[in-house]
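User: For my dataset I need records formatted as: sequence, then structure tokens, nothing else. Please produce one.
Assistant:
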Amino acid sequence: MGARILCAADTFDALTSKRAYREPLEPLAALAHLRVDSGKQFDPCVYDALVSVITKRLGTHSPSVR
């Protein structure tokens, strides 16, 4: 389970961090990007937990990322 959590967290961090070749994504856009691979590359339970944590930190609730 730890590896599954780290995989999702690392991907989220990579998407929301500035890179030499692209600007960072907004957190909700990064979650939407991860949603595409939920159940394939990412554990759906881990994805749901990540969405919960990020939306709580942002003070939003966005059903479009679930």
